[in-house]
Amino acid sequence: MASPLWMWRAERRRGGSPSCCGRSRVSGRWPGSIRSPDCGGPRWPLVLDTGADDGGAQEQWNAWLYYQQAESLLRPTNFIQSTHLEKLKTEQAAATPPAVSDGVSTDNPLVVKGADGVEYRFTGLGVDDSLAKDKVDIMAHLKVDSLGDAAAARKRNADAMVALLAAYPELRKPFHGVWVLAEATGQNPFVTEQAMSEIH
To answer: Residue 33, by phi and psi: left (phi above 0), alpha (psi -120 to 50) or beta?
Structure first.
């Protein structure tokens, strides 16, 4: 993949007054970049430089997930559109791994088989930065028939994390951890989170 059309830097600032707490401040290397008020407080910088290595065959999953993060930071609301966002979408499409080229949804899940032969059906993959770590987390939605009791649900979520990282080991390096939301029709989701060092 060719080098990207541009490189941007997004800084997530937390703290400060309630009127701006949690908003993103995006600063780019292009004219007319979005700049929201300075909220003060500690900073968790997220720098995305999607060069040829990130979009290459070795790290397509990483590039695809970080492009999702880039899009969410470039478009804080649905009514904002820009040519830069369109360029980002073009690059994201080029970096999409073949396994998810048709998208990931309830009707078209990403099926990953564990070492024990159990299939895990992921209906959504994205990123989450709610823990405000130096790296974002992977957010995975898992379709299940029934949640079961808490111990069984926790084990299933942990096994799903292991299966996902075994299938796509490049995901271990650039992310802090994995969230799994097990979802069954008519039931509240069962959510677990683990750091990469805890998943084996």
So the answer is: beta
Going by DSSP bridges, is the β-strand pair 177-183/137-143 parallel, antiparallel, or unpaired?
A: parallel
Pairwise CA distance, residues 177 & 96, whole Å = 21
**Structure confidence by residue, pLDDT tens digits, 95-110:** 889 999 899 999 999 9
The CA angle 87-91-92, to the nearest 5 degrees, is 115
In the chain, the amino acid numbered 14 is R
Q: How confident is the model at residue 58 (pLDDT cuts 50, 70, 90)?
A: low
Q: Which of 83, 81, 62, 71 is nearest to 1 (CA)?
A: 62
User: Rounded distance, CA 122 to CA 36, Å?
Assistant: 35
Q: Which tokens go with 163?
A: 């299966």
> Do 26 and 35 touch, CB atoms closer than 8 A?
yes
3-class secondary-structure state, position 167: helix
